[in-house]
């Protein structure tokens, strides 16, 4: 059985992450009306996620966590996305950073990740990802110093930064006569050399707190560097990261699209329905079905438990299709709702803004098409990102 197969949960003794998300969702939806429209980080929601035990949901039960499968985590994020896109997206960045070492511990028997997983479960710390600014090429500067590396960097799109405890990030080490290396490490957010900028002012997903993070001279000990890899090309670790992370992240956008659809149907049913509205509703539901199928295509790649160039292709094809169909779903929802959808009180305009963020995660449409085309034609993909 795949490590990602859904667990049987005894509802009398344990609430699943999906059940908890359903309980928290309505409160998050109420807060979204004011919080996200005012560029405020969803701090109360993150506190509630922590209190409910969702911070450690993906940590194996043997290490003190909830033992949730990736399928369950994806459903949790989909449901949160229906209620508050900002909360769900910011939390997906923590969730995938937990799911990746959990998968490595379960499938690869990778002992080095165990202390981190135990700490997440015991202390309920939030992890911060810099994936949006690093990706395959890495970013920031690492300089060799006695016993480690001095890091200087500005990381963008650091979702959840106001609540984060540990920053999972990278820096590039350049040595004369050697290929540039990307160093992977975690650093404490309470370091005096780490500063969160208050600069997240955006079209959508306004409550994610995806501020820039400045690192100015923090020294990472040699022993704290988890991985060193060649800059600018795919590495087995990144095949794991990308295969697992993006089905979780894009579950959020599916949830946003589903809620937009439901709002539009509710508005339309209060009107006199004509053939044009019927066709709009049919097109909208067809697009939503496409997004759901594409998300399942992504999760199917995770269930193989064998990250590779092939699973990257499958996941990134799904990522493009989820984005395409989810955006189309919300656009049609706006049209079906008519003028009512233009009012903030309806909730559609926020979802219309939030869904636009689905365009910007890697692999964006150009690199994704190049990757898929290269795979189809038997060409190298190690530097396609």
General description of the model:
The chain is an alpha+beta fold and 385 residues long. It has three domains: 17-125, Butyryl-Coa Dehydrogenase, subunit A, domain 1; 131-230, Butyryl-CoA Dehydrogenase, subunit A, domain 2; 236-376, Up-down Bundle (Butyryl-CoA Dehydrogenase, subunit A, domain 3), CATH 1.20.140. The chain is 49% helix and 14% strand. The chain is built from eleven helices and eight strands. The protein has helices at 17-35, 43-51, 70-83, 85-107, 114-123, 131-134, 236-268, 275-303, 309-337, 348-355, 365-376, and strands spanning 127-129, 141-145, 148-158, 166-173, 181-188, 194-196, 211-221, 225-230. Strands 1, 2, 3, 4, 5, 6, 7 and 8 form an eight-stranded mixed beta sheet that branches. Helix 8 (275-303) runs antiparallel to helix 9 and helix 9 crosses helix 11. The longest helix has 33 residues, at 236-268. The two termini are 32 Å apart.
